[in-house]
Amino acid sequence: MEAFHNDYPPTLSREQLDHITNTIKDWTIAHGLAVRPPNEFLSSSQDPQGVAAISAPVTLFPSLFPSRCFSEAIAIQQAYNELYARIAMDEEWLGKIIQELVEVDDFIRELWQIHERVKKDGYVQALQLGLFRSDYMVDISNNSVPQIKQVEFNTISSSFGGLSTQVAALHKYLFDSQLYNTAHYLNASSLPPNDATTTLAEGLATAHLTYASKGRKEYPLCVLFVVQEGEKNIFDQRVLEYVLQAKSIPTFRLSFASTMQHITVTNNTDRVLLYTPAHAPASKFEVSVVYLRSTYTPSDFISESDWDARYHLERSAAIKCPSILTHLAGSKKVQQVLATPSSPYLDKFLDKEKADQVRKSFTAIYPLDDSEAGRKAKAIAIDSAKCQSYVLKPQREGGGNNIYRAAIPPFLQSLGDEAKWKGHILMELIEPPPQKNSIFRGGLLKSGEIITELGVFGTCLWSSDGQKIIYNTNAGYLLRTKGRESEEGGVAAGFGAIDSVCLV
Ligand code: ADP
Ligand code: MG
Ligand code: MG
């Protein structure tokens, strides 16, 4: 890996760079590799009608990625899909873990209470859909043999499938147009295609068709995307809708904040979820699948009626992507429990071969509770020297929530009560090998040392009735890249860029 970046990426002249950035500017917009501009780029007073779109932040070159690591991450995705489906089906096991969080984390508690309320009424839908993304970094600490180590597993609102498909196509286009000069590593077989858009949409379509195959329906069926107000990463979502529409599956977007104005749930036996679009107040659709691209963060819940909305979605007969149990299965705490070295749980949920494969991708994660491991972890976490190679994570999604290195002890102090620490996990930092690349963001090109994070998408449809996995597929990949020195890699949050792999 050391030699990895010396002769990559190729050097381009000023004229070549101008040409390639102009090409990226147009290609990205022409192919929907775009975002609505962040407010600091273009304020709403400068774009009062909200019509502007700009290129999504992308890398100039595909970043180098060890071929063996890439294949391994792809190869274990279906085992991971099954693992998380089985966790979501095991309410008793999951409940014990969540119980510890409920005591210290209001958001997790509210979600769990909705599950309990619905359980009391009795769930009317046994089918559940997961559009998952398992994230990894390449670790070279072990004798320089590169290995993938999992950063986290996402079970709700796993994003960037749409845009990552397009960035792979962009890099392939730049290569085919011979804009990269001749370079080592870059050749037709080092740039694998990325089919995330079609395979993720296929997952939604499969759930929809399975729902449709059961019983006679009074109203036409639809898939409902429940989204955040003012979403900037909208084209990433839109492209999934367009694939569904092209399959003649009516698909609508509803902002979570206005859910209660547009949905009803029928009587307590069937609990069919009916949707009336604002633009067609005389029509009604029966919702087959609720796809949540919201509700993963406390700030989506402003009033009591937002909690009510989440409750009604959960109790309805629509297939949820994800259900509350599936959402909670994605907690960092669950990942920590699975990653405990002596943990028997992987073997409980998976056959031995799959369990061993998955286990190899774990890195050290510790609880911050009163167990023996927890006490050892606390001693590290309050020591400003020892915590240099760790990250502290709360049970949150969407980026920007973690505490790094020396910031950990003062953060824990600021929590006051030590009992609250157990809402967090302490994770060893993975240090991927840096390489060089350039990021094109907001029209500017910035070059330097970067590191990458690979996400592998998967889709899974299962039935908690009989514990059956009905559909389980790989669904393409995402490569995200950030400056070596930046701690978080959120593309939307303004630190990172979308990338594709050049396999070596
Ligand atoms: P979120 O659910 O908010 O995305 P993550 O666990 O993915 O939370 O953490 C956010 C980012 O922090 C990751 O994308 C990665 O850049 C960095 N990060 C998290 N865990 C680690 C780790 N163990 N080693 C190195 N970087 C990490
Ligand atoms: Mg996440
Ligand atoms: Mg993440």
TrEMBL record:
Catalysis: reaction(s): gamma-L-glutamyl-L-cysteine + glycine + ATP = glutathione + ADP + phosphate + H(+)
Lineage: superkingdom: Eukaryota
Signal peptide range in chain numbering: none
Binding-site residues, ATP: 152, 332, 393-402, 404, 427-430, 453, 482, 488
Full protein name: Glutathione synthetase
Complex and partners: Homodimer.
Example GO molecular function: glutathione synthase activity
Binding-site list for Mg(2+): E152, N154, E397
Domain Glutathione synthase substrate-binding per the UniProt entry, residue ranges: 222-329
Names of the cofactor(s): Mg(2+)
Family: Belongs to the eukaryotic GSH synthase family.
Cofactor annotation comment: Binds 1 Mg(2+) ion per subunit.
InterPro entries: Glutathione_synthase (IPR005615), Glutathione_synthase_a-hlx (IPR014042), Glutathione_synthase_C_euk (IPR014709), Glutathione_synthase_N_euk (IPR014049), GSH-S_sub-bd_sf (IPR037013), GSH_synth_subst-bd (IPR004887), PreATP-grasp_dom_sf (IPR016185)
SUPFAM superfamilies to which the protein is assigned, alphabetical: Glutathione synthetase ATP-binding domain-like, PreATP-grasp domain
Originating organism: Gomphillus americanus
Binding site for substrate: 133, 156-159, 231-233, 237, 293-296, 480, 491-492
Pfam families linked to this entry: GSH_synth_ATP (PF03917), GSH_synthase (PF03199)
Keyword annotations of the record: ATP-binding, Glutathione biosynthesis, Ligase, Magnesium, Metal-binding, Nucleotide-binding
